[in-house]
Amino acid sequence: MNAASHFRDAPGMAPRSIRMSLDGETLLARPGETVAAALLAQSGDATRRTPVTGAGRTAFCMMGVCFDCLVTIDGRPNVQACMTPARDGMVIRRQIGARRLGDQP
Amino acid sequence: MSPDLVIIGAGPAGMTAARIAAEGGLRVVLLDEQDRAGGQIYRNLGAAAGRDWLGPDYARGADLLRGLNHPGITHQPRATVWRVDAARGVIWSRDGESHVTAAPHVLIATGAQERPVPFPGWTLPGVMPAGAAQILMKQSGMVAQDAILAGAGPLLYLVAAQMIAAGSPPKALVETGTDLRHALAKLPRALPAAMTLAKGLGLIRRIHGIPRHHGARDFRAVALAGGRIGFGFTTRKGPQELDCGLLLTHLGVIPQTHLTRSMGLTHDYDVAQQAWRPRLDAWGGSSRRGVRVAGDGGGIGGADAARAQGALAALAILHDAGRLDLDERDRRARPLRRALARALSLRPFLDAAYPVPKAFLAPPDDTIICRCEEVTAGAVREAAACGAHGLRLMRTALRTGMGPCQGRMCEPTVTGLIAQTTGCAPSALGPGRIRTPVKPVTLAEIAALGRQPEETA
């Protein structure tokens, strides 16, 4: 855990001005980018644990195909972070294992 | 007011078709999953000004984006289509709410996805498709650092050149080996696409100086301390061990056919591209009247081919709608057909030059091949040997394809493993049955739609 991000910003990119939270900690995003991009820019760590073996995963395909980037956003479980534009105030939670019906808002 | 045409996908095919259809007087609804039009190839182009390091080919999509500025076109972004219903139209979801858009004509332009590249360790955080890294460059201005590119195909060279131009060159380029002897025989047929070939050679020159490994096989990734990746492979020089922050893999792209398959359209197996594609006529017409397909979703041809196919489909739709007479349709189609032939002339060479190594269609036993249900290649081989000789039997036995990705990440591999174990041809094993919703939606969302979509499959 606590792996550094494997990405850096290209020269001339706008600052990350959107403020969200990830499990209570601040997560920044640039306008126009997805939650998955913001997660990858922040850290190289897993953003979920799989329901079957508990293995760590994070965003993979970045185009809505693989569903490895699933997170809970504003209480809604199993949201594709790579298909969700980042917005101010979003409350994001990593998913550890499977969601249950009782978890629904 | 209901539209005359629904187009699914705002990449080069969908955007071209939208403009031509709208100019011909049709009311067009353009549905697209992304926040902004462009598809993957021109992703975020409208907001990526100043990013010259992405190269001139990316900027070539600008005219298509401008073309969407037409009163006849309604672009619905972030619209995920999960069913096309023969009777009721196109059903799509946005922000947890579903909508139905019905029209007499439907054009499916859903494009391609990257071919899964399964090997032991490909599920680790730190391993990603090269195309995903390119999406991050286009959409977020984020460049991979301390990265290794591995696999085969032109996209690897393009991503490497873009990374170099952005000041973050890859550490190494690990190629699975190009069967150039076989490919050279196809080269004369590719001459109409000489410009594209020259651009490709230019790309390869630009990555001069990056350490390269050829003929690599037996990929294996392990997690190292600090979130780094240990990448092992074997070349003629013996076993190699590299380490990196990010391992970016690529073995080409395959058509996204979940939607067309869910509709029961006829599909054929393309042996050269090792993927299923819908059966289409010269105007993109599918086996169902009123439903056309254009672009990579109908078979991989690239952006220039997609433009031509989108335009041809739009002309055919205008003719069907009584807006364009036969002569005019055929007259306007002639230069498009030449452009299409030129664009497609490169494919046999590329398919031969960058074949998918068998080890990625039927990987080692300890490879997780179904990322959702975490099923290994060994388990699939065992089930196949015990009689699970088809995709549906395998699904019942092991749940391959029953996770949220609905088989998008495992079906080519499950097919390859069954083919290897049973000796059947991949074409005899599919196409797998795809059921709607082709993207997950909640029961609550379906219920709120007010009417239960009927299952015709």
From TrEMBL, chain A:
Protein's UniProt keywords contain S-adenosyl-L-methionine: no
Signal peptide residues on this chain, from the entry's feature table: none
Keyword Repeat: no
One Pfam family in the UniProt entry: Fer2_4
Keywords: Oxidoreductase
Entries under SUPFAM superfamilies matching the protein: 2Fe-2S ferredoxin-like (SSF54292)
Molecular function terms, GO-annotated: iron-sulfur cluster binding; oxidoreductase activity
Protein name: 2Fe-2S iron-sulfur cluster protein
Organism: Paracoccus lutimaris
TrEMBL record, chain B:
Superkingdom assignment: Bacteria
Keyword terms, alphabetized: Oxidoreductase
SUPFAM superfamilies attached to this UniProt entry: FAD/NAD(P)-binding domain (SSF51905)
A Pfam short name: Fer2_BFD
Signal peptide stretch: none
Transmembrane segments: none
Chain ranges of the FAD/NAD(P)-binding domain: 4-310
Residues covered by the BFD-like [2Fe-2S]-binding domain: 368-419
A GO MF label: oxidoreductase activity
Protein name, per record: NADPH-dependent 2,4-dienoyl-CoA reductase/sulfur reductase-like enzyme
Organism: Paracoccus lutimaris
